Structures are given as C-alpha cells and as structure tokens.
Please model this.
Amino acid sequence: MNEQDYIVKLEAMNKQLLDQVTTLTFELREMKRLLFGRKSERFVPQQDTGQLDLALIMQEAAAPVAVQEKVVVIKTKQSSHQPAGRQPLPSNLERKHIVLEPETDTAGMKKIGEEITEQLDYKPGKLFVLHYIRPKYAKTAADGTSTSVVIAALPSFVIEKGIAAPGLLAQIIVDKHADHLPIYRQIKRYQRDGVKLSAGTISGWLDATADLLGLLGNELKKTVLSSDYLQADETPMPVLNGETKGAAHRGYLWAYHSPPHQLIYYDYQTGRGKEGPIALLKAYSGYLQTDGYGVYEHDEIGGRAGITLLHCMAHARRYFEKSLDNDKERSEHFLREVQKLYAVERRCREEELSVQQITTLRQQEAVPVLTALKQWLRNNYEQVLPKSPIGKAIAYALPRWERLSIYTHDGKLQIDNNWVENAMRPVALGRKNYMFAGSNEGGRRLALFYSLLESCRKQNINPWEYLTNILQRMPSTKTSQLRNLLPDKWKPTECN
Model:
C-alpha cells in the first residue's frame, strides 16, 4: 500500500470513528435526558439577562487594566405575572349551610350583614343498592278463584340478571381508562365497603358492557370517517399471547381524530403494519395528517387518489431540539424560524379568525418563512455529517417539506398533529398501571372505551355522567338514533 492509499484509508477510518462517536454521544445524552432531564420541547432562545459572567470577570481581573471607577447597572426583568389568588369555588357544587351565631345574646340587636367563609370538603363515593319492589296482584273471578297475576315488568338492564347497575359500570370504566386505576386496586376499594368482587366478575361486566356499546362504537367510527380532515397516530399496547404464561406480544392502538367533530376513534390492531389503516381508510376521502411514519405514505393510504397527506411540524421541530447540543447554531436558527410559524398560529387563535382569514394570514406571513427555511435546509444538507443529530434532523425535514407546508393552503388544517398526540397520553398512562391487555379481544375493548372517554374529554363532558346516562338509554335506543348518543350530540336526559 502506497502512502496516498494509506492516507485515504486513515481519513475514511477517521470519518467512520467520528460518526460513531457523534452517534454514541447523542444516544448517551438522550438517555440522560430521558432519565434526569426536562421533557418539554419548548425552545427558549438564550437572551442577554444583564447578569455578569463570573468567568469573564476573572479573565478581566487577570489582565492588566487601568484603574477606573465604573458604575455597573444590572437591570432585572420585572415579572408581568400577577398572583391569581384563591379562585372561587364552583357555583354548581352542593352547599351545606352552617350558621354560626355569636355566643353573646343578640336579642334586640339588628343584623347588619354577614361574612361568608367557604371550605371545600369531600365524602368518599358510596355503594348503594337499587331495591326493586314489584307488588303482585291477582285477578279473581266471581266465584273467588284467581284467574291471573299482574306484576310490573323490570326495566331493561345493561347486563341481564346482573347485579351491576349503570352507575357502577360507568365508575369502573372511568376509573380504569380515564383515571388509570387497575381492576385489582378497585377491588380493594370496594372491599373497604364490605363488597367482595372478583377480577373475573368485573372482567365479565366489562365484556358485557362492551357488547352493548359496540353499535355506538361503530357509529362513532362512521362519524369520524365522514370528516374531510383526519389526524392519525399509533401507540403500542402489550397484549398477552395466551400461549406462554406472562408472555406478551405488541399490539397497537391506532387513533383517528376528526378536528371538525372533535371526536376520536381508536382502532386496535395486532401490529404496526399497513393492513390496519388500509382497511379502515379504504373509503375515506380528505386530508390525512400524520407524523413521518412510512406506512402512511403507502399507495393505498396517503398515496391514494382522494387523500391529501400532510405532515406534522412538531415532529420536524423535535429533531432539531434534540440536535441543539450537536450543532447549536443551525438548530437554534431552525427553531427560531419555526417559532415565527407558531406565532402566526397563536395570533389566529387569539383573534378568533375565520377559516378564510387564517388562510390569508398564513399565506402572507407563514409561507415566506417556510420558503426561506426550505432553501436553508438545502444549503446546509451537504455541510453536515449525515449520521449526526443535525444531519438526521435536516434529512427528516427536507424531503417532507412540501407536506409540512400544506397546512397553509386551508385555514381548517393544523400546523401539527398535537391534538391526536395528546390523545395518546391516557393510553400511555394506563399502560404504566395495568401493564397490558389480557387478549386481542381485550385490546378491542380498550379501544372502544378509550374512544368514548377521549371523545368526552374533547367535548368537556363528565365521562361518568355520560356513560351512566347512555348505558341506561342504549337498551331502548334505535339504531337510527345512535348518532344522538355520541359525545358531540349528547344531551343528558332523565332516566329511570
């Protein structure tokens, strides 16, 4: 090997080792941040706070300078935040009035006013029994013999011949899926009230409830897919495989959020492949907003005629936020420009602009920023190491830039996928508590309950009140009336 070849080989080896060190350093930093660091992705540019730099002072002290008196004025930023103080207690809460009269005899005195002091108290929820009493009456003939017996019919129950009433079933569902309380913890709580329930019994109740609400789940899916704008995301859900004790496979909950309806539908699938979204979206037509996962770009999903695929700016921003320690200058430039885009969105919300006004404002203020950023990405792509964090950030954003910019064409579209990503948080919290679904059927049951509860959250509806009400109404509701039971149309009614 001649000297030139040896130098080329050393340079290639040096580049390879540099790439490896950069990758390992980034992975170590990310691991430390996951364990000890902040989780927020909010970018706050460094600004001059007027504080003195200790290192700079020591350097200046070490250098010979002429003695000169100087007054240093350090300006501190006054916080504009004012303490909100104690907020008044909600007026809809029941008040238990307690009148405290003075110990002094007030006979003959004139009342000139009163002082009100309120405390917020709590009484734990109590189990109670619905005790149905049905008097029986006998019709008698003229000769005194009984001809027939008359008795009132029982109302329709959620579970035929079951002891669980709608309020209890709703509480069990809300406790597990909204408040992330596993069944075994709920069982211990009921035991404190003297009621012993087994996990098998409660599981049977949930199965029966899911069967009753299955038609409502189908109506929810139909309504969500009737929208012309969907946001989609997916998250893993460990599921016991039923073959080896304790062994689980990775199922997935696919979330489809309809911003126009503010409803969300979860679809359980046994994997993360293209089969699930292809089957669900086969008749869908409209905008589909996702992260950069390649499955959504399949010819039968995002590549199909009738579907316009757009991407999420928050995902692109996330890569640059993670590359701050690798290439601060480039990362901060990108993040500062993206802040300008979000400032436009904030203005749209604060000024409550119409869809057409939002489109116009984005065209005027966001499009120039996006155009300049695209050129900046192109210019810097060849100047960074491909496997470095900043290289991966640019490589992620640049080929997706057109789809990241589509939101500017229609004011009803969002700049990012955060609405559907936020809907994944309850699933993640539940996963940490109850750990897994017991079977694929259990995964589909989870998807149904999450669909209804998350839709309630988006509509600011009390989930217990909603479930209690619809569980009473479902047995007598016609299929044509199911649309009125979805959270965006639901109105509470009196039920027996």
